[in-house]
Specification:
The complex is a heterodimer. By secondary structure, chain A is an alpha+beta fold. In chain A, 24% of the residues lie in helices and 13% in strands. Among the domains of chain A are: 158 residues, no CATH class; 40 residues. In chain A, strands 5, 6, 7, 8, 9, 11, 13, 14 and 15 form a nine-stranded mixed sheet that branches. By secondary structure, chain B is mainly alpha-helical. The longest helix of chain B is centred in the N-terminal third of the chain and has 29 residues. Classes of the chains: A alpha+beta, B mainly alpha. Chains A and B meet through helix 15 of A and helix 2 and helix 6 of B.
């Protein structure tokens, strides 16, 4: 009877097992285009034109979306400026970095990642509405591409860049096929920050266009995978895209609130809450001190190597024939370029860990630096006792870059430009390049330059692994673990009091020595007594 | 020689369960402390915390048993306890080598010598409860901090827990050795298994 019952129930169990949610469901409902938009842009007369340039497209967009450019003008995507609480003006336009160092005097090259057209020098008109580039974010075709040195303009005729063909963008077709930003829109700049795929961030690269779950569990786009895109977390309102490296949220104390903007931007806790570990409750005790990212992004640059070292001081070497040198490693990544110096790359890198309370200290071009050691271009603030600080993972990009050895300040070298303009990439003269750049920026230069070691911190938040791949206890709770060098707090498994350990050793060794001595004495005494016939 | 029934069934059960639990707690605790890697930090952590409840349960059970059966009287002493402890200590330090008789005879009413009484009493009333309290404070650290405990107590709590563990190891070593000091080398252990021990008339 019992046996037959089990056999009867077997299919039921099997069915239950098969139907149980073993897979994540797609984050987005599968809907047709009608459910997404009330407008079909192929039907607009404004867009049935042969567009000759980007600004022409924008003018057409503005016919209906009348206030769009005004909204965009308020974003840091447009201004490249972020005013900080302490009065410093940061943002891409102003910060020092240890990749290509500074935008100013190199605009035409750098602004191929600006959401505008024509920012080729400091005379760019930031109030211009038609110079807002709608397409770079809203191109749904994946064919729109700004020309790398076009000051934000796309190629208007078929051309070449760096010896490779660079096709023109079909503006009319693209204008008629616009949509909400998808991964490729954000990625065209953010995946290729620093000049090429995966260079800058360590947790953002083109592998996120179609990642496996092990690369990014949220963005994995296969069948029955979540398929979330950038703007699902960076949920935008009025074109303001939340999520800033200048003012990050190091600790979300509110938990569930998606999509309410009381945590701006969406944090892990916005969806997962503040007690996300159902099976292993002790992990929830970590949440006040350890950022989710620390355990759940065990390595960065999972598929594509990211740049870890950039030494500008080695730039300017030529081969015997006086030609520029490019040396590549076995994977095809450049490790030396005459224009740029020496690089080191790494894949599947363990991040470095620091206490972080959300405040980033930035050195600016006006700060006096201590050139006797490694200069932190930016440094995360925070300490163990502080209620906002948590242990965060960072990519630390290190390198050597030119500075004013007289004034002890960072400098803005002119890198990009025609021959004779002072641009280092053509003239290969640091002094001239720095002088030109600094003059252009209206900054002082002593005329005495050197190279200084720098490091720059990039908080890691993307490429979240499936939970199976998250760090285990012992990755940190051990001597020689990932948090070996993070001081100021007691970490079980890593730390010990020398006093307690010595006392403990004395107690244990003393006990053993005591019983062994006692035992031997008993044995000897007993034997002697036996010989003496006393027993 | 005569045989006396010294340890009731519950006592033996309690003793051996406690032995297993304490041994496992020490083992897993030392692994969590990072002294070796055998069963893995995470497993050691889970086993340790589970067994902590076991230790607590058995201590509470033992208190209940001692009180309800009246067996706690075994731990009471008449006369000068210090003097008696010194007598017993003198036996272990001198008398035992001269084959002197044990200074205190075991019988059904009094199975513990004064040194045992004070040691077990301190262990059961002070050492283990303190270790359990400190251990639970360690585990429920976040909850206690939420109730107002200063977060800086983490380190002293951890150190105290470790120190008490080392002292417990010292106790276990001595305790196991002391079992050989009975009438024969194994008579004490046999007694803790069967309940019956051969004692001098």
């Amino acid at each position: 009877m019992k046996k037959s019952l089990i056999i009867l129930l077997l299919p039921v169990f099997t069915a239950l097992l098969l139907c149980s949610s073993l897979h994540a469901e797609n984050f987005h409902h599968r809907v047709d285009s009608l459910m997404i938009s009330t407008a079909d842009h192929t039907k607009f007369d404004e867009l049935k034109k042969d567009f000759k340039s980007g600004p022409e497209v924008t003018a057409a967009c503005l016919r209906c979306h009348t206030e769009a450019s005004k909204q965009l003008h308020r974003t840091k995507h447009w201004t490249w400026e972020v005013p900080m609480k302490d009065g410093k003006m940061l943002g891409k336009q102003h910060v020092v970095n240890n990749f290509c160092i500074s935008v100013e005097s190199n605009e035409a090259r750098c602004t191929s990642c600006h959401i505008g057209y024509g920012w080729k020098d400091k005379n760019f008109d930031f109030t211009s509405e038609k110079n807002v580039d709608c397409l770079v974010c809203h191109d749904a075709t994946g064919t729109y591409k700004k020309y790398p040195s076009g000051a934000g303009h796309p190629a208007l005729v078929d051309t070449v860049f760096g010896g490779k063909p660079f096709p023109k963008s079909d503006l009319t077709y693209i204008a008629q096929h616009v949509g909400n930003p998808d991964r490729h829109n954000c990625g065209i700049c953010h995946f290729e920050g620093g000049g090429a795929d995966a260079v800058k961030h360590g947790d953002l690269d083109n592998s996120l266009i179609d990642p496996s779950e092990s690369i990014d569990v949220h963005m994995a786009s296969g069948k029955d995978e979540l398929n979330m895109t950038c703007i699902d977390c960076h949920k935008t309102e009025g074109h303001q895209v939340p999520g800033s490296r200048y003012e990050p949220t190091a600790r979300d104390v509110h938990g569930f609130d998606y999509p309410l903007p009381d945590d701006y931007p969406t944090t892990c806790g916005s969806c997962h809450g503040l007690k996300p570990h159902e099976k292993f409750k002790k992990l929830d005790d970590h949440i006040d001190k350890v950022a989710c990212q620390t355990c759940h992004i065990p390595v960065m640059a999972k598929e594509r190597a990211t740049k870890m070292w950039w030494d500008w001081s080695k730039a300017g070497q030529f081969d015997d024939k006086g030609k520029e040198i490019t040396r590549k490693d076995s994977t095809g990544l450049p490790v030396y370029m005459t224009k740029k110096g020496e690089f080191e790359w790494a894949r599947e890198v363990e991040p470095e860990y620091r206490w972080f309370n959300g405040e980033m200290n930035y050195v600016t071009f006006l700060s006096e630096i201590d050139d006797s050691g490694v200069v932190s271009i930016n440094h995360p603030d925070g300490e163990p006792g502080d209620s906002l600080s948590r242990i965060w993972p960072f990519k630390v990009h290190r390198g050597k870059q030119p500075y004013d050895a007289g004034l002890k300040r960072f400098v803005k070298p002119k890198l990009y430009g025609p021959k004779g303009s002072g641009a280092y990439w053509k003239d290969f003269d640091w002094d001239k390049s720095i002088k030109t750049g600094m003059e252009y920026a209206g900054l002082k230069y002593s005329g005495n330059y050197g190279f200084v070691d720098t490091e720059m911190y990039w908080p890691i938040s993307h490429m979240v692994s499936p939970k199976e791949d998250a760090l285990g206890c012992v990755d940190c709770h051990a001597r020689g673990g990932r948090l070996e060098n993070l001081g100021g707090f007691y970490l079980p498994g890593r730390d010990a009091s020398p006093f307690v350990e010595i006392v403990g050793l004395l107690v244990i060794v003393g006990s053993f020595v005591g019983i062994i001595a006692h035992g031997i004495m008993r044995y000897v005494a007993h034997k002697n007594m036996k010989q003496d016939g006393e027993v | 020689m005569r045989k006396v029934y010294l340890y009731a069934r519950f006592q033996r059960f309690w003793h051996w369960m406690q032995a297993i639990i304490i041994f496992s707690l020490l083992f897993t605790g030392l692994e969590v402390h990072g002294l070796f890697k055998l069963i893995g930090y995470e497993t050691a952590f889970h086993v340790h915390n589970f067994l902590a409840w076991g230790l607590l349960t058995f201590i509470v059970l033992a208190f209940f048993w001692y009180i309800t059966t009246g067996d706690f009287r075994q731990y009471l002493t008449e006369g000068n306890l210090i003097e008696k402890i010194m007598m017993q200590a003198r036996y272990y330090l001198i008398g035992i080598f001269k084959n002197e008789p044990h200074p205190f005879k075991k019988n059904e009413i009094s199975r513990l010598n004064p040194l045992q009484r004070i040691t077990y009493l301190m262990l059961t009333l002070v050492g283990l409860p303190l270790q359990i309290i400190v251990g639970f404070a360690y585990f429920y650290f976040n909850e206690l901090v939420a109730l107002g405990m200063p977060p800086s107590w983490m380190e002293p709590i951890a150190h105290l827990h470790t120190l008490l563990a080392y002292m417990l190891i010292g106790f276990v070593i001595m305790h196991v050795y002391m079992t050989t000091t009975g009438h024969t080398l194994t008579s004490n252990i046999k007694a803790m298994v069967t309940g019956w021990e051969e004692v001098e008339e």
